[in-house]
Amino acid sequence: MCNRAGNRPSGLNMTLSLGWLSALVAGFISVHVLQRLYFPYFWRDLLFLLKVIRYGVKLEMFKLTSSVFTVLDRFIQQAQRIPNKPFVIYDGSIYTYRDIETRSNRLANVFLERVKLKKGDCVALSMNNEPDFLCVWFGLAKVGCSIAFLNTNIKPKSLLHCFNSCGAKTLIVGSGKALTLESLDGVLSSLLEDDIQVWTMKNQSEHTQVQTLLDKIDVASDRPVPAVLRSCTSLKSPTLYIFTSGTTGLPKAAVITHLQSLKAAAGFWAFGVTEDDVMYIPLPLYHSAASLIGIGGTIYLGATCVLKKKFSASQFWNDCRKHNVTVFQYIGELCRYLCNQPKTEVDKVHKVRIGVGNGLRQDVWREFLNRFGNIKMCEVYGSTEGNLVFMNHIGKIGTVGRSNFIYRLLFKYNLVKYDMVKDEPVKDQHGFCQQVDRGETGLLLSKVSALTPFFGYAGSKQLTEKKLLRNVFVKGDAYFNTGDLMAEDQKGFICFRDRVGDTFRWKGENVATTEVTEILGLVDFIQEVNVYGVAVPGHEGRAGMAAMIVRPGLTFNGQKLFEHVMKDLPAYARPLFLRLQEFMEMTSTFKQQKFKLVQSGFNPSTVTDPLYVLDYQQKSYIPLTDSIYQSILAGERKL
């Protein structure tokens, strides 16, 4: 009797326990359903952010120590850990970590003993994609030099400006066909007059005042130079200068610190790339994407990269299949070229699983996936000199990144209202900027703080200041002006809309309209010129167009202008279209009006002004007829 009575509480407890358990399970299920409905990316966002934060904490710890573990230190560490692993595959040849380490040691000894470089010197480097680009880069870094990567398309007139801005006193020229010694003839005397020594990666030189490196490398020691030369005590120390076309004309030397290099080197890792992956790098190494993210990311992981001298749409997939490529770098235009290639039965026969890059249009994105299979395309948004990065780790088509309340706490950015006609942010009655609502397009600004510093440009504080907006929301604050119009939807996805200011992007390069304007202004029959970019159906970015006024008493000469732009402008910066006007429209602040010109485009049936198009066959600017216009729209005429 007592036993039966004693069992009753036990049964009751069991019933209560089951009830609580059922309620708990039901609660978990409800929370899970609500999370899937209203916060579908919560766990993926959280895991990604925790990964990024963990790496950020690691970098912050460097501030508490007396030394910084740099990307170069990581490379040397990998060369000791995996010396025989392929680091670079180039033109059919394999270069191990030991190979690049040994050759960069030889170069470091040459730089010390023969070139007489010292720690702290700045050296300008002009080379095409090749293994020796890395060897020279690492060799210079080992002796404590900062390196200025020169765009190999640079014209001699801009070259002197680049040296003045970064303070380089030595130039190393590659053996390729880009910035050759022959192309330096016009400025070589000026360089020598400024006590700038010129070295070439050759065994012999036709110029008596240009010295050679290859013959000296062969007899140099491969012993490491003293580690104290490359040692660094601050993350904010400059390690590279990468030239970028901004809104102020001539190329600007963006300061790349060890902090920026280390952040970029973790990009592949953040997207889930591992040391077992093989990266394909067809982008130029003088750009930050290939050098900082591509090479830096390969080094950080201890992986292998296939370095391409120049992108080839016809060779791309064969290269990927041949070398078992699993990850590739891209710009949007590159993917469009691949989609335009003839279809084959083996389009989906490859091991590529991830693409990392920027500027991929939605239509090209979808076509690329349908054509080449389920490849995760990871868009990265950020400029070389900028202090903000967005990463589309979800892979949602048409977006450049993700944001949420945690990201906003870490990285202060805002989208503000922008007046496209006046070409300036909209201000309230107190003179402060106004934030846009979710889903609306606004100018992206990123707050400058200790966590997100802006290092600016070398050579001029004025150039750095021009990229900043002050007193944006409160007195005394400062924001980096990205110059990009963006929108953030209700789910936290960020989309790129357009660029503002005096820069547009064509053929994967940023074009500064003020620099092009200055070059065109040297032509005798041009009185005034206004350069801008126009959208061309089927093409990424915007093509260059120039509205101009012909000087009274003179006539327009298409052949003469053609010869001028061919001589003084790289291919991507040459205006493809011209518009002859009687007068220039100006804004209320006496700036050239671009908005209406951009909107009206280059359609001869709607534009009443005479239009011309660049014609390489006739070597002239010829009248843009309706038939030519239609052939451009149909993709029949190559731009």
From TrEMBL:
This is long-chain-fatty-acid--CoA ligase. It comes from the Eukaryota. NCBIfam families: PRK08279.1 (NF006134). The gene is SLC27A6. It comes from Sparus aurata (Gilthead sea bream). Residues 515-591 form the AMP-binding enzyme C-terminal domain. Residues 77-402 form the AMP-dependent synthetase/ligase domain. Belongs to the ATP-dependent AMP-binding enzyme family. Keywords: Fatty acid metabolism, Ligase, Lipid metabolism, Membrane, Transmembrane, Transmembrane helix. SUPFAM superfamilies: Acetyl-CoA synthetase-like. GO terms for cellular component: endoplasmic reticulum membrane; plasma membrane. It is an enzyme of class 6 (ligase). The chain crosses the membrane at residues 12-35. It catalyses: tetracosanoate + ATP + CoA = tetracosanoyl-CoA + AMP + diphosphate; a very long-chain fatty acid + ATP + CoA = a very long-chain fatty acyl-CoA + AMP + diphosphate. GO terms for molecular function: long-chain fatty acid transmembrane transporter activity; long-chain fatty acid-CoA ligase activity; nucleotide binding. GO terms for biological process: long-chain fatty acid import into cell.
